[in-house]
Amino acid sequence: MKKLIYFVAAFAAVATFYSCSSDDVLEDIQQPSDVEEVQGKPLTVRVNGEALTRGEYASAITGFKMTGLANGNYGTEWFKDGAFTKDGSWTNNLAADKKSWPSTTAKYDFFAASEDGAAASVSTSTLTDGKISFDYTVPTDLASQKDLLVATNIGAASTDNDGEVSLNFQHALSGIKLLARLAFVDWNGSIYTNSGISDVVDEYDDFHYGYYIEIDKVEIYGFKTKGTFTFGSATSTNTKGAWESGSWSAQAEPAVFVLDYSTSPLVYIVEAQAGITNDTEAAAYTHVDLLGGTSSVPKMTMVVPQTTTAWVPSAACPTDGSASYIKLHMKMAYYCPVSKAQELKQQYLDEGDADTADYYQQIIDDNGCMGNALQSWTLSEGSYYYPIPTKEFSANKTYTLRLLLNRLYKSGGTKAFSGASFNG
After folding, report:
1. Mean pLDDT of successive 10-residue segments in the chain (424 residues)?
2. 418 burial class (0-12, 13-18, 19+ CB within 10 angstroms)?
3. Is residue 175 within 8 Å of residue 293, measured between CB atoms?
4. How far apart are alpha carbons 379 and 182 in whole angstroms?
């Protein structure tokens, strides 16, 4: 019988996404002149996606790490933690005798992981209690976080799709956005006539047209950062993997996400807007992104999928991670539009009142903030707290938490602001 020989140039793969109009397998592979001859059908991979459209995070896969094991018998390996990268064309670090299917009849299971679309730092071959799993820690520093993507294919054979293994990557972490705004009414349901979002402006004096708020620190408490991810297996009902429950005992320290804006505070200006008559209309007016983005293009933090436990405002804020809440350090002052301050400055110059004119010049210099002009933040400065609700945060989903800045609490759980203004 004539022996069939297959020439293997590389591990052929295409990194596209499910939302694309097509995801074709790479063809016309050029073969190096010194390629080694190996027996068996060449292994090829199709990399699909599942709506990987979460803002600034991975939008294309150019690398991943993958393990191939005998179906349901993970003591028998084909290859472990092979790194696959795309730099013009797909390459991998598999040994030459691992680039082709070992059998024409046996089935195999494949486990893959990627971070920010590149080969993941985790192992895809750790066997624990008969399942493939890995431990993962989400950094509390947003700049260091990576979008963890995972994929499996269970029971594939060389006779399926001419030896092509299809991988459907999905986000393994939860994404959270934090937006804040002013409510239209106070704790008791009374309209904030000087909240800056009411159209009742006749009660302002010369310069109180709203509020100027600076936030110089945001702290997020009560989220766990470590977990164990277990891939789906031949006996699993979820072949895309699931986060194991009960694995949080390995967490050694409370998780606190800190965003320090002390050198460049977040500035939130709320100015009177005619026509707003209720909180539904006010909700669409303006927000500040507490993670440093914009209200139209907010940033996002990653967390391990979990269920939070809300802080109950009647109790002091715990710092051991047992309750979830957001701590803000902020300053608040009255606001005067720069255009109005310029008008008033000129008015007082014309009247020969240079001191008052200088006062409005300070407001102009501070972009309408009256805190420095008055030599103090006229309303309040300090740390305030907002509970994060008890909620299940699932993998492959993004959540938006919206805070009301005039519904904050003090550390002991008392309401920070009451009445028809911010004065507390």
Report:
1. 35 35 29 40 72 53 90 84 79 87 90 90 85 89 91 88 84 90 62 42 47 92 88 67 46 74 90 59 73 86 90 87 92 83 92 91 88 68 90 88 84 68 40
2. middle
3. no
4. 15
Backbone angles phi, psi at 306, to 5 degrees: -170, 175
Which amino acid, residue 304? V
Render the burial of 92-116: b for 16+ CB within 10 Å, e for the rest: bebeeebbbbbeeeebbbbbbbbbb
Residue-wise pLDDT tens digits, 221-236: 999 888 888 887 766 6
The residue behind tokens 């059998």 is: 103
Cα distance between residue 157 and residue 174, in whole Å: 33
Q: Which amino acid is at 19?
A: S
Which pairs from 358-367 meet CB under 8 Å and 24+ separation?
360/336, 363/207, 363/336, 363/338, 364/338, 367/212, 367/267, 367/269, 367/338
Candidates 163, 166, 171; CA nearest to 154 is 166
- At residue 79, φ and ψ (nearest 5 deg) are -150, 155
Q: How far apart are CA 184 and CA 282, in angstroms?
A: 6
Encoded tokens for 115? 């971070």
Longest Cα–Cα distance in the chain: 109
DSSP code string of 57-110: S--S--EEEEEEEETT-TTSEEEEEEEEEEESEEEE---GGGSB-S-SS--EEE
